[in-house]
Write a structure and sequence with these properties.
alpha/beta; 6-stranded parallel β-sheet; 42% helix; 20% strand
């Protein structure tokens, strides 16, 4: 993330995380370190994976003390190995201790998402299909989690409800049907907005195409029906496959020919990447 993105989107969220962890003081650190003392600590990788969120990790310490120095031996998107020293943090020992958990929470979470995303993205290499995330993100962590998906080789679906039109089952129910929902969206939305609609069977798909939807989301449909759907949509609408897509079952979708595969698991089910700050000492 560049400095403008950081200041506009990340700083306040990082500060909120720090306030959550330090309501008045870090009583443990203050009890053993009464005054300033310079020190350094190593950032160690304890598991193979893909690193993501280094700028956020660094920013945690620099928001506590702008003089903190952080030096990395890798960059976002790099593969890291168990036991690898990937950075050194130097500064006020009190800052290193107080910022440790918040900084690691961000970096471990983002790196876990990047690692999981890379696993699925690699399975789609050589196809036209792009891997998408969803809005199934941790509250107040979306900007970080969607960034991690991109680092891992995935693409971002809409960022939030203001970002794009996606008519799902309950929207269709509220509107009274597929054709009605698409017609209402076309009437309301700016002409530059694409209209995506979720369908659960081929009859709904045909209705959506007749109504002029731009993107058809094939939700929890059989592989056979999805293959037929892709043929029906060719030249008329883009296609997106969704519904409980994980690294364990994505292989069955590779040859269907959809334009996009979306997976909520990228952000709601990826385990963290194990990282640690070790060997703190005065300098």
């Amino acid at each position: 993330m560049n400095n403008i993105t950081m200041k506009m989107n990340a700083d306040e969220l990082i500060l909120c995380a720090l306030r959550e962890d330090i309501t008045s003081e870090d009583i443990t650190t203050n009890s053993v370190m009464r005054d300033y003392k310079a020190g350094e600590v190593e950032l160690i990788c304890k598991q193979d994976g893909v690193i993501a969120g280094l700028d956020i990790f660094k920013r945690v310490f620099q928001l506590l003390d702008e003089k903190t120095e952080v030096i990395f031996n890798c960059k976002d998107g790099d593969t890291v190995k168990n036991g690898e020293k990937i950075g050194i943090i130097r500064g006020d020992i009190r800052v290193l201790l107080s910022g440790e958990r918040t900084a690691l929470n961000f970096l471990q979470r983002m790196s876990g998402i990047a690692t999981y995303t890379r696993t699925i993205a690699d399975l789609l290499k050589g196809t036209k299909t792009k891997l998408l995330d969803t809005r199934k993100t941790t509250p107040n962590m979306r900007v970080f989690e969607k960034y991690a998906v991109k680092v891992g080789g995935g693409c971002n679906h809409r960022y939030n409800l203001s970002d794009g039109i996606l008519l799902k089952d309950n929207h269709i129910g509220a509107a009274g049907g597929v054709k009605e929902a698409v017609a209402m969206a076309k009437e309301y939305a700016p002409f530059v907005r694409k209209i995506e609609i979720e369908v659960e069977n081929l009859d709904m798909l045909r209705e959506a195409l007749e109504a002029g939807a731009d993107i058809i989301m094939l939700d929890n449909m059989s592989v056979e029906d999805m293959k037929q759907a892709v043929k029906l949509c060719e030249g008329r609408a883009e296609t997106e496959c969704s519904g409980n897509v994980t690294k364990e079952n994505v292989a069955r979708l590779v040859d269907i020919g959809v334009d996009y595969i979306s997976s909520g698991a990228l952000t709601h089910s990826s385990p963290i990447l194990d990282l640690s700050l070790k060997n703190l000492h005065a300098i």
